[in-house]
Automatic annotation (TrEMBL):
<dbReference type="InterPro" id="IPR058205">
    <property type="entry name" value="D-LDH-like"/>
</dbReference>
<protein>
    <submittedName>
        <fullName>Lactate dehydrogenase-like oxidoreductase</fullName>
    </submittedName>
</protein>
<dbReference type="InterPro" id="IPR006140">
    <property type="entry name" value="D-isomer_DH_NAD-bd"/>
</dbReference>
<dbReference type="InterPro" id="IPR006139">
    <property type="entry name" value="D-isomer_2_OHA_DH_cat_dom"/>
</dbReference>
<keyword id="KW-0560">Oxidoreductase</keyword>
<dbReference type="GO" id="GO:0051287">
    <property type="term" value="F:NAD binding"/>
</dbReference>
<feature type="domain" description="D-isomer specific 2-hydroxyacid dehydrogenase NAD-binding">
    <location>
        <begin position="109"/>
        <end position="297"/>
    </location>
</feature>
<keyword id="KW-0520">NAD</keyword>
<dbReference type="Pfam" id="PF02826">
    <property type="entry name" value="2-Hacid_dh_C"/>
</dbReference>
<feature type="region of interest" description="Disordered">
    <location>
        <begin position="329"/>
        <end position="346"/>
    </location>
</feature>
<feature type="domain" description="D-isomer specific 2-hydroxyacid dehydrogenase catalytic">
    <location>
        <begin position="19"/>
        <end position="320"/>
    </location>
</feature>
<dbReference type="GO" id="GO:0008720">
    <property type="term" value="F:D-lactate dehydrogenase (NAD+) activity"/>
</dbReference>
<dbReference type="InterPro" id="IPR029753">
    <property type="entry name" value="D-isomer_DH_CS"/>
</dbReference>
<dbReference type="InterPro" id="IPR036291">
    <property type="entry name" value="NAD(P)-bd_dom_sf"/>
</dbReference>
<dbReference type="Pfam" id="PF00389">
    <property type="entry name" value="2-Hacid_dh"/>
</dbReference>
<comment type="similarity">
    <text>Belongs to the D-isomer specific 2-hydroxyacid dehydrogenase family.</text>
</comment>
<dbReference type="InterPro" id="IPR029752">
    <property type="entry name" value="D-isomer_DH_CS1"/>
</dbReference>
């Protein structure tokens, strides 16, 4: 069986090749999946996609025409896949839910520390042989109150790490994780209370119709003056325009993000020689108290290996007509997504 891997990056090839223990025919293309490139899937049995690929209804209809019956998402987030349409067309979709929560959690902590201790500014200055520290005054993470929005796998890892910094921890989630309460003294609260009481707010929710623009002007107004917001989840969970307004007013003291609302076709590519016509991104990148990384939180050797191994397990399971553990229910991310509770296994 042929597996076409869209949006293949050089760094992941060797992991995909070595995890392909059943010798499926792998066709790795750099193109991302879209209406313009979907024809590349002709003749394949399985399509493997990443976060920037387009698996919306019109693309899925084309895939169905080419007799594709399985989509392997090599990521946790599946907000770019129309699950209902896929189910209606008889296309099974599976993701990789648990490949390395600590990869993303540690990146979130890295953003926090880099911002709170002004490490990027220090780097820029020392590169120019400027060793003054007058503008490098930071704060400790120790004893800060951190609001963890989404206490699933990644939020739990963040909780565990931050408890080592003796932070006061507030959690927000539709499902309480009792272990985090007993083990790390995390207190659950509603989002408004979390916003009001946190020095740092870190986002670890999926993007869906209920979480889109969850962090908006109204929520930012509740936050503490000089709050730090960290987003390693999905760009669309925050309203970027409102974040910029918050930064301009000084309400948001720091913003660290590994994701961006309009990152598609921008992140993962080198645009240093071309002009990116995106005023919002340009504005964000102009602030010294903002640190943007290019959706790299997942990019560790450990994560890439786990992703590749899980993908082939998923595909082989499906090929043997067995129900794989990571098949996505069409109701996920909708008003009826209580099904998520079952799959969380917290
Ligand atoms: P998870 O499913 O384990 O946890 C998500 C949590 O969000 C769950 O506890 C769930 O109950 C909660 N939740 C969902 N919708 C909610 C709502 N409307 N209100 C309150 N709580 C809600 O997922 P995870 O593995 O922790 O990943 C979280 C997100 O991180 C992913 O969906 C993905 O978008 C993002 N992610 C980013 C990267 C990266 O490289 N930057 C890598 C992996 C995952």
């Amino acid at each position: 069986m042929k597996v076409i891997v869209f949006s293949t990056r050089e760094f992941e090839k060797k992991y995909l090749i070595s995890a392909n223990t059943t010798s499926l025919e792998l066709v790795m293309v750099t193109e991302s999946l879209s209406l313009n490139t979907v024809h590349l899937a002709k003749g394949a049995g399985v399509v493997c996609i990443f976060t920037g690929d387009d698996a919306s209804a019109p693309v899925l209809v084309k895939l169905k025409e080419y007799n594709i019956k399985y989509i392997a998402v090599r990521a946790t987030g599946f907000d770019h896949v129309d699950l209902k349409k896929a189910a209606a067309l008889g296309i099974t979709v599976a993701n990789v839910p648990d490949y390395s929560p600590f990869s993303i959690a540690e990146h979130a902590i890295g953003l926090m520390l880099a911002l709170i201790r002004k490490l990027t500014l220090a780097y820029q200055q020392t590169q120019r042989y400027n060793f003054k520290i007058d503008n490098l005054l930071g704060s400790t993470l120790h004893h800060k109150t951190v609001g963890i929005v989404g206490t699933g796998k990644i939020g739990s890892a963040v909780t565990q790490i931050l408890s080592g910094f003796d932070c006061n921890l507030i959690g927000y989630d539709k499902i309480r994780n009792e272990q985090l309460i007993s083990k790390y003294q995390l207190h659950y609260a509603d989002l408004k209370t979390l916003c009001k009481n946190s020095d740092i707010i870190t986002l670890h929710l999926p993007l869906n119709e209920r979480t889109e623009y969850l962090i908006n002007k109204e929520m930012i107004d509740f936050m503490r003056q000089g709050v730090m917001i960290i987003n390693t989840a999905r760009g669309g969970i925050v309203n970027t325009q409102d974040i910029i307004e918050g930064i301009e007013k000084g309400k948001i003291g720091y913003y660290g993000a590994d994701v961006y609302e309009h990152e598609k076709d921008v992140f993962f590519y080198d645009h240093s020689e071309k002009k990116v016509n995106d005023p919002l991104l340009k504005k964000l990148l102009s602030y010294s108290n903002v640190l943007i990384t290019p959706h790299q939180a997942f990019a560790t050797k450990e994560a890439l290996n786990n992703i590749a191994v899980t993908i082939f397990k998923n595909i082989n399971c499906w090929a043997l007509q067995q129900k794989g553990p990571h098949e996505l229910h069409p109701d996920l991310g909708t008003e009826n997504d209580n099904i998520e509770q079952e799959s969380l296994n917290l």
